[in-house]
Amino acid sequence: MKNILKTILLCSGVALLVACEKDEEKVVMNANARVESNLSASALVLDKTQTNTTALTVNWEEKDFGVNVAPKYTVEIANAAGKKKLLSADKSPLTLTHKELNEYLVGLGLKTGVATNVTVAVKAALSDQRSIVSSEKSLTVTPYFDEIKPSEWGVVGSATPNAWNGPDIKMWNAADGNLVAYATLSAGEIKFRKNNDWGVNLGGSNGKLSSGGANIAVAAGTYKITIDLSKNTYTIETYSWGVVGDLNTWGKTPDTKMSYEGSTASWVAKNVTLTEAGSIKFRLNSDWGTNFGADSTDNPAKALEGDVKTGGNNIQLPAGTYNVSFSFDANNKGTYKIEKL
User: Fold this and answer.
1) What is the pTM of this model?
2) Is the dihedral of CA 326, 329, 331, 335 positive or negative?
């Protein structure tokens, strides 16, 4: 019985060794392996009116890999400082619309309206240890300023800074089709109206709206105000983003409040002062339940701009005064930017 068991174990070991050797052979590339890539253009002026039109196509082909394992591809777009935007792809080609490419380039810090050189390369990876990158292709590109326009609707009333005469607090088109405003209100009343005029206005109660309806009472506070015109409903919820960190002993004193800039869909705090070197993050309603930090391998992050994620790393800053902004989308992906004054 023992001999039989030994024989089984020996055969299993041999089979495993052979399998390992075969697997190892699969990921050994030829010495001459390479990736050849090309771009559909060498110079581009991105156009806001062509949002969904293809602006750039990246093609590539692997040569002499000598293996039958499908590589994982990454298209790398880099600015002059070496900061990269990494785009995963299953196969060639990768196409980018004017809107997509513009967002990536602005995220890399390129100035809008200015022709700037970036490089594009393709990385083919067979594993974490085995990869090859194509030669860099140069692209001269001019991004555009993607300013978001407010809707025709606004918030008016005794609770707003301009009372019943306006101009009204602007409402913005949200991704879900609703209208949204972020506002600090005093105790009073509000309504909603179109084009700063009483010709078309909505009021109501208990979350329901009607044409010419009643004034809506509100307590003093900072709010996210949403209206759904398709259902004639509204919501008013406490909503305030702030900067937290060493500047307020991580919440022992009030957070530095941020204001909403609808034209860039970002939250901004100006003249934020750190008397000593320290770190910051962003949090909602002065509470740690929802917070953003840097999406960075460095902890704390030291870059003055980069990506953010929920619960991300602290962002470390030298002593000084800064303008701080961050933004995020429905998937909680976004960016931050810090400018030293």
Assistant:
1) 0.67
2) negative
Are the beta carbons of 152 and 196 closer than 8 angstroms?
Answer: no
Q: How far apart are alpha carbons 323 and 305 in whole angstroms?
A: 12
Contact 258, 271 (CB under 8 A): no
Q: What share of the chain has pLDDT > 90, as a percent? A: 67
Residues with Cβ within 8 Å of residue 82, at least 6 apart in sequence: none
Which one of 204, 222, 238 terminates a domain? 238
Can you give the CATH number for the domain in which 213 is found? Answer: 2.60.40.3620
Assigned domain for 28 exists: no
Instruction: Return the CATH number at 58.
Output: 2.60.40.1940
Q: 238 and 223 in contact (C-beta within 8 Å)?
A: yes
Q: How far apart are CA 55 and CA 41, in angstroms?
A: 9
Mean pLDDT of the chain: 88
For residue 175, count CB atoms less than 10 angstroms from its CB and return exposed for 0-12, middle for 13-18, buried for 19 or more: exposed
DSSP 13: H
| Cβ contact 210:203 at 8 Å | yes
- Residue 133: what residue type? V
Mapped to the 3 state alphabet, what secondary structure does 234-268 carry? EEEEECCEEEEEHHHHHHCCCCEECEEECCCCEEE
Locate 154 and state its tokens: 């606004």
Cα separation, 174 vs 171, in Å, equals 9
322 exposed, middle or buried (CB, 10 Å; 0-12, 13-18, 19+)? buried
Q: For residues 303 and 15, which has the higher predicted lDDT (pLDDT)?
A: 303
What band does 240 get if pLDDT is binned at 50, 70 and 90?
A: very high
- 135-152 burial: b if 16+ Cβ within 10 Å, else e: eeeebebbbbebeeebbe
Which one of 142, 162, 195 terminates a domain? 142
Q: HEC string of 85-132?
A: EEEEECCCCEEEEHHHHHHHHHHCCCCCCCCEEEEEEEEEECCCCCEE
